[in-house]
Structure formats: structure tokens, C-alpha cells
Design a protein that fits this description.
Blueprint: E1 3-7, E2 22-28, E3 32-38, H1 71-88, E4 94-98, H2 109-123, E5 128-133, H3 141-147, E6 152-156, H4 162-169, H5 177-185, E7 192-196, E8 198-202, E9 205-206, H6 212-225, E10 229-233, E11 244-246, H7 249-269, E12 272-276, E13 281-283, E14 291-297, E15 300-306, E16 309-316, E17 321-322, H8 325-330, E18 338-342, E19 346-352, H9 353-362, H10 364-390, H11 393-403, H12 407-410, H13 413-420, H14 424-431
Parallel strand pairs: 1-10, 3-4, 4-5, 5-6, 6-7, 7-10
Antiparallel strand pairs: 2-3, 8-9, 8-11, 12-19, 13-18, 14-17, 14-19, 15-16, 15-18
Helix pairs in contact: 1-2, 2-3, 9-10, 13-14
């Protein structure tokens, strides 16, 4: 499961070589106010790829003569800039390793990451540390370990098509995309996949990777890697190959939707089916229930026993979920007098609370989805309490009827009366 960001921008700038070791800050639509850290020479490009869309141009056109900045040089320059920003602003959202090539190619990359994290914690502890990488050095143990320490480990995977890689990304050394995928999987979700989608031609041949021929195999690889986020974008600045074109907004949206569908499938794969006959007690009082239940077919009611009476507190039907509140939030047994019963022959799917929580911690989109569900439930609960205080019995009945017209044919009227805070006699009178 992973969150998908679409970045679709105008071509606004010429190819550029960045200062070293610090540049900016610049405003990144992906990351916010970003202070750049360039571990490559300031007078040229040093990269294990020679991408035809690179904002820094072709490797052959920008051969550097200066040396890589030393670790101490990077640390001193970064601290000086962070101190200035602390005193004069602006406040950085992120410290981003980018610039004139591949940052992980620097022989002291791991140590520089440690220095950066220490300085971040000293001056701007809320800022994130990001690395934009083409993934060519993630096989190195020290690079792998360093990338696992940072907040945003952003790794490139433009395609899984070897011919396209050689035509567009143009690795300068050994590059096996299947090896790269396996190495990405080793991060166990602690990475962000970044993919360039574009159209146009290069040397008279199409470079359009927005079609299913390229997208669907790429999507399968993304599902295997299971990153926490996917960034899909198109051409931003002037490119060294001038026949390239932006992917259309509609094309990026289509790819994003395919990614979202893949997210749903991952959640679904963790669900287990459960068929229950009507009147089954799903959640018993005074016991811990470690599952969350999704209702595909049927209706469930939550109720409490009060002075020998059953008082209905909630209804859940198709598309809703139900669970023991205490077990979900407090990791304890449920209330001693509260239970959940299915009112019809029902089909449910369940997932252990611990597994759902792990998915929420790993994937922002699942966490947001669950947050939205809880928000809706909270709003409905608050609205119901306020209505009980200020609405007449007839107004509460009419409100429920408008929102749940089918419930009166499916649910015992006594349960509905209890839920609305009125007697069965009053409800029957209102329905005449």
C-alpha cells in the first residue's frame, strides 16, 4: 500500500549546474522549502545515469574539473547555512541531497548523512532529510544503511523495460533492473519510488512510457517493492534532448488511479471472510476482540444492557466497519455490558487490529482512509447527541428516515426506537 503523488508542471527553466556543496533554499512542489545539498563538483555533472531529460544536461557537455566536496567541507557549509536560516529565515521543510548527479556516488556519503542528521536535529529538528537517487548504488551496504536512516529515501524507477532504460536513462555502468527491484524490496517499504513519465521522441524513436505496454509491468514491480509512497511526474524544465514532451495531465491521472487500485488490492489481500447467520453475537461483552470487521452484506447493531433493557447505540451496514472500541483503542476487553449482533444473514471480512495498525504506520493512504472513516463516525455521533438534546421525537424520526429509508424494512422497529431515544409506541405513532 502506498500513497501516490502526481506532479505535473510547466517547462520554465534551462538546464542548470548547481553550486556546491549547498544551494537554495528552493521551493519544491514535492517537498516544500528545500535546502539543497550537492555532493558533486560545482563546475560540472557527475552521474551514473545520462538521462535524456536531465535538467543538468548531458554528461559529455558538463565534464567537471574540480574535486568532490570533502565531508568536512559539506558539514561546515551546511552548519553555516542552517545557522543563518535559524537567525534570518526561511525555515526549511526539508534538507535535500540532489544537484549535479548521483549523491550516493560520493565515497563519504554515509558519514555525510550522519553529519546532516546531527545538524538537522540541532537547528531544525522538525525538518526532513531527503535523498534523490537513481538507485545505482543501493547495493552498497553503507549506502543502504544510510538511506534507511533518513526521512525520505526517494529512488528512481522510470520503467522495467531494458530497451527504454538504455534509450532514456542511459546507465554509464552496470545496471540490471531486476537486481535494482530486489534491492528496493530489501528496504521493506522504507522508500519512495519516483518515476518520470513523458512523451515525444529521441533520435527519431518514441520515448512515450505512458501506455499500458510500459505502465502495467512497472506497476507490477511497484506492487512487489511495496514502497510507502509513489511520486509520478513529468518534464519540469528544459531538457538536453529538445524533442521530448510532457505527459498530459489526464495520462498522469490515469496512472495514479492504477496505483490507487493496487493499494486497495493490498489491503483486501489481508482480509479474511466470515459468514454469520442472523442474530449471531459478533462481539461479546467483557471480552477482548482483536479484529476489525468490514460488512459486505448485512446489518449489525451495537447495544448495551441497561436495567434489563437493550439500548441500541449504533447501526453498521454494507460498507461500514465495526469493532470493539476498547479493544481497538485501549487494547483491553470490551465494556462489560456492550455487544455487537448481526441482524441478518451476513457476510463480513475481518483483519486483526495489529495488522491494520501496521499498515497504517507503513502507508499514509491507509492511515488517511481510516482517519476519514473515524471522522465521519465521530461527526455522526456528535450530530446524534445534539439532535437528542434539541430535536423533537418527530424531527429525529424524519431525519433518520431520510438518511436510512431501507432500515425500516430490515430492522426491528424496537431497535430503531431505542436508537432514536423514544418508545416503540411513539415510533409506531409517527409512522402512521
Amino acid at each position: 500500500m502506498y500513497f501516490c503523488t502526481v506532479i505535473n508542471r510547466k517547462i520554465t527553466m534551462s538546464t542548470v549546474i548547481y553550486p556546491s556543496p549547498i544551494f537554495g533554499p528552493v521551493h519544491s512542489r514535492r517537498l516544500g522549502v528545500s535546502l539543497g545539498i550537492n555532493l558533486l563538483p560545482e563546475d560540472g555533472k557527475f552521474c551514473s545515469f545520462d538521462c535524456i531529460y536531465c535538467e543538468c544536461g548531458f554528461n559529455k557537455d558538463h565534464r567537471p574539473k574540480k574535486k568532490l566536496p570533502a565531508r568536512e567541507q559539506v558539514r561546515e557549509a551546511l552548519e553555516a547555512r542552517l545557522l543563518d536560516m535559524q537567525q534570518n529565515g526561511p525555515k526549511p521543510d526539508v534538507l535535500t541531497f540532489a544537484g549535479n548527479g548521483e549523491p550516493t556516488a560520493h565515497p563519504e556519503f554515509a558519514g555525510i548523512i550522519d553529519d546532516t542528521l546531527a545538524l538537522r536535529d540541532k537547528y531544525f529538528p522538525q525538518a526532513k532529510v531527503s535523498v534523490l537517487s537513481n538507485s545505482t548504488f543501493i547495493h552498497k551496504a553503507e549506502v543502504f544503511k544510510a538511506l534507511n536512516k533518513i526521512d525520505n529515501n526517494i529512488l528512481k524507477l522510470d520503467t522495467v523495460n531494458v530497451d527504454y532504460i538504455n534509450k532514456v536513462d542511459r546507465p554509464t555502468g552496470h545496471y540490471d533492473v531486476n537486481e535494482i527491484i530486489e534491492e528496493m524490496k530489501a528496504f521493506k517499504g522504507n522508500l519512495i519510488i519516483q518515476t518520470m513519465f513523458m512523451k515525444g521522441e529521441s533520435q527519431g524513436k518514441s520515448v512515450d512510457n505512458t501506455t499500458d505496454e510500459y505502465v502495467l509491468p512497472w506497476l507490477e514491480a511497484v506492487k512487489e517493492i511495496a514502497p510507502r509512497q509513489v511520486m509520478i511526474y513529468t518534464i519540469d524544465r528544459e531538457t538536453p534532448d529538445h524533442d521530448l514532451k510532457k505527459a498530459a495531465h489526464e495520462e498522469l491521472d490515469r496512472i495514479a488511479e492504477l496505483v490507487k487500485e493496487a493499494n486497495i488490492h493490498e489491503l483486501i489481500s489481508g482480509l479474511q471472510p466470515l459468514a454469520l447467520p442472523k442474530r449471531t453475537i459478533l462481539i461479546a461483552p467483557g471480552k477482548r476482540d482483536d479484529n476489525v470487521y468490514f460488512i459486505e452484506k448485512g446489518i449489525a447493531r451495537s447495544y448495551i444492557l441497561m436495567d434489563g433493557r437493550e439500548v441500541t447505540s449504533w447501526f453498521s451496514k454494507e460498507g461500514d466497519l465495526t469493532f470493539s472500541t476498547n479493544s481497538f483503542y485501549g487494547k483491553t476487553e470490551g465494556y462489560e455490558n456492550e455487544m455487537v449482533q448481526v441482524l441478518e444473514d451476513s457476510i463480513l471480512y475481518f483483519i486483526p487490529i495489529a495488522e491494520l495498525e501496521a499498515l497504517c504506520l507503513k502507508y499514509a493512504d491507509i492511515a488517511n482512509w481510516l482517519r476519514i472513516l473515524h471522522q465521519k463516525a465521530f461527526v455522526e455521533m456528535e450530530r446524534r447527541l445534539i439532535y437528542r438534546l434539541y430535536m423533537s421525537a418527530e424531527e429525529r424520526y424524519n431525519d433518520f428516515l431520510i438518511k436510512n429509508p431501507d432500515m425500516f424494512q430490515r430492522v426491528n422497529l424496537g431497535y430503531i426506537a431505542s436508537y432514536l431515544g423514544m418508545s416503540h409506541v411513539t415510533l409506531c405513532a409517527l409512522r402512521k
